[in-house]
Amino acid sequence: MNEEKEKVMKQFGANASKYVSSKSHAKGEDLAILVDWIKPDKEWSVLDIATGGGHVAKALALHVNEVFATDLTKAMLENTSTHLKKSFENIKFVIADAEKLPFLDRTFDVVTCRIAPHHFPTPKDFISEAARVLKPGGLFLMIDNVVPEDRELATFMNTFEKMRDESHVACLPVSRWESYLKGEEMEEVRSLKKKKTYRFPGWVERTTTSSAQVNGVHQYILQASKRVHNYFQVEIQSEKVASVTVDEWMILYKKSMGRTE
C-alpha cells in the first residue's frame, strides 16, 4: 500500500467518531439534494465509495434494495457499522480501496462518493473503477471540494488543506474531473457548484494533532495575498482566522448504454 493511503487509514482511523458527528458531513443539505437527483428505486443496488460516517449510505438505504458501504479504513467502517447496522439491515459494510474495487463489472445501479476523492492518490483510477462497476445506464454521483482553474488559488487551497490534514492529496479543478469522466464515456446529467464555509477553529482541530500545527494553518492563511483572501472569503477576527470559504462541486453522471468493459 502506498504512503498516501497509509496516511488516510491513520487519519481516519484515529478520528472515526468525529466523522459520524461532524456537522459538515452529517447535516449537509446535499444529502437531501442527492436523493432528489438520483430518484432511487426500491429494486436498486447502490455502492457508496469511501462512506466515512455512512451519511450517504443512510440517506439512500431508505429508498433502495441494498447499499454496499465501503471504506479503506477498517476502524472507520467498524465505527460506522456500529451506528447504522441496527437501524439499516440493507446496508452491507465492505473494506475496499476506491481505486481497486472488489466488485464485478456492471454490478450497481448507482455509485456515490461524497467529500472523499481529494484523499485518493490516483483519482483517474477511481473514476475508471466507478464506471466499471456501474451497469450501462447507471448513475454516478460525486460531491467534493474543487480548486479554481487559477494556479495560484489552487495551490493556496491545496497547501492549507495539506497543512491541516496530512491525508489530503489534492482537490482537483472541475476541468480535470470532466476529462476523466468523459474518458470513461460518462454523460453529464446535472451539476451544481456552490460555496462552502469552514468555521475555525473546529474545522482545523478535527484533523490536526498539535497547537503548533493549528497555528501553522492560521499563519499561512493570514499571510496570503488580498487576492487570495477575497476569493476564499477569509474572515479574520481578533487577528485570527474565523472562516474560509471553498468551492464544492456536486455532479450526477450517467454511464453510456453502449459502454462495455
Automatic annotation (TrEMBL):
What Gene Ontology terms for biological process does this UniProt record contain?
Answer: methylation
Does Signal count among this protein's keywords?
A: no
Q: Which residues form the Methyltransferase type domain?
A: 47-141
Pfam families referenced in this protein's UniProt entry, alphabetically: Methyltransf_11
Sorted alphabetically, the keyword list is: Methyltransferase, Transferase
Mind telling me which InterPro entries this protein's record contains?
A: Methyltransf_11, SAM-dependent_MTases_sf
| Gene Ontology molecular functions | methyltransferase activity
> What EC number(s) are associated with this protein in UniProt?
2.1.1.-
Q: Does the keyword NAD apply?
A: no
This chain belongs to the protein called Class I SAM-dependent methyltransferase
State the organism named in the record.
Alkalihalophilus lindianensis
